[in-house]
Write a sequence for this structure.
């Protein structure tokens, strides 16, 4: 799913901060610092997340003319994950433990040895596995501060808020009646305070 095609399912945020002077240069430097990179399997990782061109999961050569369509900033967030089936991992682990015991002539492994063999098997299987690739389009209207992430996955939304904060130092708030008032109204803070004081209404029952 995404901004250009597929089902239009997205989460809306508001950017609370105005883009600073020199935003273009700062923005691109930050994007390139957090561009997508392959999973660091040797480092014990099974997941990687970062920026790519909009709708192009393998395009990490990002430039201003690729991501900016006045007044929109358009990118995709790519997430790769490697998942090893539990039964397959257990079978490979048991085989490797038996090989280790036969080589050492012992009847059982020490705790440290078992952990070492486990990590070795995980690394080998991750290197052989194809990662699951997902991309989530991001469209930021720099004129009105609305930012759309084309997914409603809670986990991805949380990762997205974190990477936006790390990449650009921007604060996001999810779209809600309270944040709409704060972000869109000249009297936003006063109206939002009144909204917090409002009593909840029950529309499911009718009292006669």
């Amino acid at each position: 799913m995404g901004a250009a095609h597929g089902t239009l399912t997205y989460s809306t945020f508001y950017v609370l901060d105005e883009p600073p002077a020199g935003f273009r240069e700062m923005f691109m430097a930050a994007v390139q610092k957090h561009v997508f990179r392959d999973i660091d399997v040797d480092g014990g990782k099974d997941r990687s997340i970062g920026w790519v061109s909009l709708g192009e999961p393998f395009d990490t050569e990002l430039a201003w003319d690729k991501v900016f369509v006045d007044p929109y900033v358009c990118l995709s967030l790519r997430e790769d994950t490697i998942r090893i089936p539990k039964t397959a991992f257990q079978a490979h682990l048991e085989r490797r433990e038996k090989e280790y015991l036969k080589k050492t002539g012992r009847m059982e492994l020490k705790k440290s040895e078992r952990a070492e063999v486990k990590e070795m098997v995980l690394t080998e299987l991750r290197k052989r596995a194809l990662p699951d690739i997902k991309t989530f389009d991001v469209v930021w209207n720099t004129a009105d501060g609305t930012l759309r992430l084309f997914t409603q996955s809670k986990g991805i939304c949380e990762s997205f808020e974190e990477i936006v904060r790390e990449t650009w130092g921007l604060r996001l708030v999810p779209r809600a009646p309270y944040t709409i008032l704060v972000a869109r109204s000249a009297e936003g803070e006063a109206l939002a305070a009144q909204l917090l004081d409002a009593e909840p209404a029950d529309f499911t029952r009718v009292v006669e």
